[in-house]
Design goal:
Strand 7, helix 6 and strand 8 form a beta-alpha-beta unit. By secondary structure, the chain is of the alpha/beta class. The protein is globular, with a radius of gyration of 19 Å. The protein is 33% helix and 17% strand. An 8-stranded parallel sheet has the order 2-3-4-5-6-7-8-9. The protein has a 3-stranded antiparallel sheet with strand order 1-10-13, with helices on one face. Strands 11-12 form a two-stranded antiparallel sheet. The two termini are 17 Å apart. Helix 3 packs parallel to helix 4. The protein has a single domain, classed as TIM Barrel. Bound molecules: (4S)-2,6-dioxohexahydropyrimidine-4-carboxylic acid and zinc ion. The site of (4S)-2,6-dioxohexahydropyrimidine-4-carboxylic acid (DOR) has 10 residues, from loops.
Length: 344
């Protein structure tokens, strides 16, 4: 008899849907399995104001194919010019679920991010007051800090000071890639942490040994094996601090396979099958629902989804290696092993 597992429909607490032709191609890949997703605002230009978020939400909903059910949970991109009143109004109307902090220069389209944290103090204090979570890209950008240390240094130099200065601010440390990040989030009662699918699978050797693998390059970059093991332990523990945020981040192949390749792994298509494989390897299939479907809504104060998905173990699933967009192909993340879990 084949093994199967029925869980509440999962959500993705960190997703890049982009816009235009890319949005059209990738939205069904997420909507097929996920009920809701926190939508990243790093478009060009970024989603900064409530009006920007309304327009982007409308573009997403008008792109959603008939018969698919999906709720985009919108975010605003925090800049030094963000108006706390605009943020508060967007929250009060139910338009936004979080605000996103990119340190300026940390990653794709982060040029409008924050350089001087004193200039966002008013917005952060307003968010603490109204209970609106801050999603944080946790990497310092200082040229002298090694790329593999940027997350750990960020916790000490930026994240912990901001949280101390803003009591009550609820923070999600996103796409955690280090044991340092896991330990910090675990020790804080009012924090959440997202973990991506790909960081549970690859370490830095997978990017660099035997030739450079551009489709494994993302930010924060995958770290050494001991960190991957800490992420797997946290994700599969059931600990309510940790939930799925795929950071599925599509880029055209021509921009990944490039002398200056873009950061991002595209995992929307096969994430649930990969996670089932990972949780099975860790003998933690009974905790997949907590990670993918329960802990995230609990952090955000939202109900878990009522509908269910069923994962069934069988012959390897034939996922496409690439999906097509009107502008060219996007490579689907390859975990490096067959995926046996079918999602329905
Ligand atoms: O790898 C990444 N890609 N990390 C990010 O933080 C941004 C994302 C993107 O937008 O491509
Ligand atoms: Zn991201």
């Amino acid at each position: 008899m084949s093994k199967s597992l029925t869980i509440r429909r999962p959500d993705d607490w960190h997703l890049h849907l982009r816009d235009g032709a890319m949005l059209r191609a990738v939205l069904p890949e997420s909507a097929r399995h996920f009920a809701r997703a926190i939508i990243m605002p790093n478009l060009v230009p970024p989603v900064v104001t409530a009006d920007d978020a309304t327009a982007y939400r409308d573009r997403i909903m008008s792109t959603l194919p008939d018969g698919m059910d999906f709720e985009p949970l919108m975010t605003l991109y925090l800049t030094e010019a963000t108006d706390p009143a605009d943020v508060a109004a967007a929250h009060a109307s139910g338009l936004i679920t979080a605000v996103k902090l990119y340190p300026a220069g940390a990653t794709t389209n982060s040029a409008s991010g924050v350089k001087n944290f004193d200039n966002v103090r008013g917005t952060l204090e307003k968010m603490a007051e109204i209970g609106l979570p801050l999603c944080v890209h946790g990497e310092v950008t200082d040229a002298e800090v090694d790329i593999f240390d940027r997350e750990a240094v960020f916790i000490e130099r930026v994240l912990d000071p901001i949280r101390r200065a803003t009591p009550g601010l609820r923070v999600v440390m996103e796409h955690i890639t280090t044991k340092n990040g896991i330990d910090y989030v675990k020790s804080q009662s009012d924090m959440g942490g997202t973990i991506t699918t790909h960081h549970l699978v690859i370490n830095r050797n997978d990017i660099l040994v035997g030739g450079i693998k551009p489709h494994y390059y993302c930010l924060p970059v995958a770290k050494r094996e001991e960190h991957r093991l800490a992420l797997r332990a946290a994700a599969t523990s059931g600990d309510a601090h940790f939930f799925l945020g795929t950071d599925s981040a599509p880029h055209l192949d021509e921009l990944k396979e490039h002398p200056c390749g873009c950061a991002g792994c595209f995992t929307a298509t096969n994430t649930m099958s990969i996670l089932a494989e990972v949780f099975e390897q860790e003998q933690a299939l009974d905790r997949l629902e907590a990670f993918a479907s329960l802990n995230g809504p609990a952090f955000y104060g939202l109900p878990a989804n009522d509908d269910k998905i069923t994962l069934t173990r069988g012959d390897p699933v034939n996922y496409p290696t690439k999906i097509d967009t009107a502008d060219g192909p996007v490579t689907v993340f390859d975990p490096g092993y067959p995926l046996h879990w079918h999602v329905a």
